[in-house]
Write a structure and sequence with these properties.
InterPro entries: DHS-like_NAD/FAD-binding_dom (IPR029035), NAD-dep_sirtuin_deacylases (IPR050134), Sirtuin (IPR003000), Sirtuin_cat_small_dom_sf (IPR026591), Ssirtuin_cat_dom (IPR026590)
Domain Deacetylase sirtuin-type: 1-249
Pfam family, one: SIR2
CATH topology of the largest domain: Rossmann fold
Binding site for Zn(2+): 125, 128, 147, 149
Protein name: protein acetyllysine N-acetyltransferase
CATH architecture of the largest domain: 3-Layer(aba) Sandwich
Number of domains: 2
CATH class of the largest domain: Alpha Beta
Oligomer: single chain
Strand content: 15-25%
């Protein structure tokens, strides 16, 4: 039997991606052996909304950490393989926990990417709601980035203590429920409610496949768990999916 039997004869594919898909691009993950929080557990406090609001030093440090995740970061083989699959005509949607925009940089149609935790591309004023390119905010460091109105600028990402946008989450659940194959790639699957999309997909009959270096809480629901490095696993899976039947028009 083909070891990728679960990638054959499927038309509607959803790929749920976490930080692990971007590590080959030089973007560190959070919980891995070299992850941001593994190397410095105190940094996790920076990602808490209440701490961000309460302390100017926390805000500046938060911006400095995220500034290091910007710059000339390029998509890797996994991002490119997914983009080629989608632009080649496969009915593919990406639900991502990542805020790096690398799926779009790889060439995926922006409307086919649902950014569950927001985007680093912009900052939002907590007073007037105006959005500013993050590069402009980062350029003001080490001074605290502020809006033209004087309000606090916060990267347009979801922090601990904030709710996911209800419309975005509802869309993601509908996509998961309509999937025939749901690939969870490079995520610890420990951050809810996003990780719960795996259960939504499985409950509606999708083949759930987990591609991750470490065990996850959803491995038991999966028809397959792939421990192969993401940079080789995803292109191999995409090659099978590209030949697995009719494409959209």
């Amino acid at each position: 039997m083909n070891d990728l039997w679960w990638a054959e004869d499927v038309q509607r594919v959803t790929v749920f991606t976490g930080a692990g898909i971007s590590t080959d691009s030089g973007v560190p993950d959070y919980r891995g052996p070299q992850g941001i929080w593994t190397r410095d557990p105190a940094l996790a406090d920076l990602f808490t909304y209440d701490n961000f609001l309460a302390d100017a030093e926390v805000r500046v440090r938060f911006w400095q950490v995220f500034a290091g995740r910007q710059g000339d970061v390029l998509p890797n083989a996994a991002h490119r393989a997914l983009a080629e699959l989608e632009t080649g005509g496969k009915a593919l949607r990406v639900l991502t926990q990542n805020v790096d925009g690398l799926h779009q940089k790889a060439g995926m149609s922006p409307r086919k990417v649902v950014e569950l935790h927001g985007s680093l591309a912009t900052a939002t004023c907590l007073d007037c709601g105006e959005r500013t390119p993050s590069a402009e905010a980062i350029a003001r460091l080490p001074e605290e980035p502020r809006c033209a109105c004087g309000g606090l600028l916060k990267p347009s990402v979801v922090m601990f203590g904030e709710y996911l946008d209800s419309d975005v989450l509802s869309l993601a659940r509908r996509i998961a429920a309509a999937s025939e194959l749901f690939l969870a790639v490079g995520s610890s699957l420990r951050v809810e409610p996003a990780a719960g999309l795996c259960a939504v997909a499985a409950e509606h009959g999708a083949r759930l496949v987990v591609v991750n270096r470490d065990p996850t809480p959803y491995d038991g629901l999966a028809v397959e768990v792939v421990r192969e490095p993401i940079g080789t696993a995803v292109p191999r899976i995409c090659a099978v999916l590209a030949g697995s039947g009719p494409k959209r028009h």
